[in-house]
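Deliverable D2.4 — example input (structure tokens):
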């Protein structure tokens, strides 16, 4: 069953589970992420809708199930919280904290233009006029939060293999984790 074959294949099922679906806020090869509201309390969440038919064989489905369990075991203020996982024959519905920005967004919002004398690019670099930097104190604060989250995961024997600026700070993507033996 392809999602495109039905205008709103998830709407009624998710509504029955206590969520109201809103707009799509992300899309990947296995599915999409939608903004949603928890009916019980009005809290905004993200629901990652993963099409099982795009995952592959049963072993891949089992890998996702293990990854969900790993993510669920991580409870830290700087790691996206997994609220619950719902599924039917065709889809996983991963309900997690909604975060609305990434490292790039934060730098644009909180960064400042560097002094002109610090803009000394190498010959092959191009510096855009809208470049911004974080102060050392602010960068240190964010870096400490990132390190605290990674340290917590490592203490639980979990390694995140997909860290990049979009997953740092606010992307609800902790996929491709692996528990170390």
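Example output (designed residues):
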């Amino acid at each position: 069953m392809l999602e495109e074959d039905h205008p709103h294949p998830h709407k009624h099922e998710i509504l029955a589970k206590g969520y109201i679906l809103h707009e799509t806020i992300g899309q990947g090869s296995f599915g999409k992420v939608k903004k949603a509201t928890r009916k019980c309390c009005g809290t905004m969440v993200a629901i990652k809708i993963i099409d099982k038919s795009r995952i592959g064989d049963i072993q891949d489905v089992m890998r996702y199930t293990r990854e969900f369990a790993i993510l669920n075991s991580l409870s830290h203020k700087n790691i996206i919280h997994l609220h619950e996982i719902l599924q039917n024959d065709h889809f996983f519905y991963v309900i997690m904290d909604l975060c609305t920005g990434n490292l790039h967004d934060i730098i644009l919002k909180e960064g400042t233009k560097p002094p002109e004398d610090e803009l000394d690019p190498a010959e092959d670099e191009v510096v855009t006029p809208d470049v911004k930097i974080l102060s050392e104190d602010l960068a240190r604060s964010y870096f400490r939060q990132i390190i605290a989250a990674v340290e917590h995961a490592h203490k639980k024997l979990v390694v995140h293999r997909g860290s990049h600026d979009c997953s740092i700070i606010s992307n609800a993507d902790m996929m491709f984790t692996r528990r170390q033996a």
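The chain has a mean pLDDT of 76.
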